[in-house]
Amino acid sequence: MSAEIIDGSAVAKQLLAETAARAKAFTERAGRAPCLATVLVGQDPASMSYVRMKQNRSAKNGIDSRKVELPETTTTDELIAAITGLSDDPQVDGILLQHPVPEQIDERAAFEAIAPRKDVDGVTMHSLAATALDLPSFHSCTPEGIVRLLDSYRVELAGKRAVVIGRSPILGMPVGLLLLGRNATVTYCHSGTVDLADQVRQADVVVAAVGRPELIKGEWIKPGAVVVDAGYNPGNVGDVEQAVAVERASMITPVPGGVGPMTIAVLLAQTVAAAEASLG
């Protein structure tokens, strides 16, 4: 058996087409395009490249970009002031703080300066709590992208056992909450899990989001399980040993081309949704 490949690029392309149509309709109605503001602290090459990519993708889909660049020496208070200004600006619909930030900055405090209605990256405590309580909010983009991928491939989650490897507040934790909201039985695993292989072997759905190359061995995958590899490590290597897992799973996301394209597609979709909500 060879797993069906879950094509994140194709699903993201469809979502972006829908988002572009909504952005056009908003622009015609509001007299301006939806606007995503990106805040970048310092000159990290990877972060700068990522921000440029987001700006290019925004422009292609009818969304304006505003880039706020701050020096490496920026303090927490200075960053909060910049984000607060964007939160108060009626011309800005979504705010993205590019992370990681320099070590002198309290990243959590900076995230909390983002107004919940503009938290299109789903990083605030408000968004996480709303996700847990199944209340209206913007979800963290990668977890939301994962669930949309599973929906696109008609993966039934209710009653299934899902194992999430990873517990970060913007990926592992919220994706588990979203799966729980779909009536899956969710087990969180992490660096302190002593029986990781046994937990994975029991899973109908595996979400690997730990950031360690090929930590999840292919032989651990239960035959017929659905595997979502949300890891991205140097050399285009995921968190799952794909060469072996693909022979055991029923469906699997590739690296690259699986989860990654969905993240920015969801970010832009949620930016347009924030813009639409601003018109009431």
Task: Explain this structure.
With 280 residues, this protein is α/β, with parallel strands linked by helices. The protein has two domains: 31-120, Rossmann fold (3-Layer(aba) Sandwich); 141-259, Rossmann fold (3-Layer(aba) Sandwich). The protein has ten helices and nine strands. The chain has helices at residues 8-30, 45-60, 76-88, 107-111, 125-132, 141-152, 172-181, 196-201, 242-245, 260-278; strands spanning 4-5, 35-41, 64-70, 94-97, 161-165, 185-189, 205-208, 226-229, 251-252. The strands form two sheets. It has a six-stranded parallel β-sheet with strand order 1-9-8-7-5-6. α9 links the parallel β8 and β9 (251-252). α1 runs parallel beside α10, α6 (141-152) crosses α7 (172-181) and α6 (141-152) packs across α10. The longest helix has 23 residues, at 8-30. It is globular, with a radius of gyration of 19 Å. The termini are far apart. The mean pLDDT is 97.
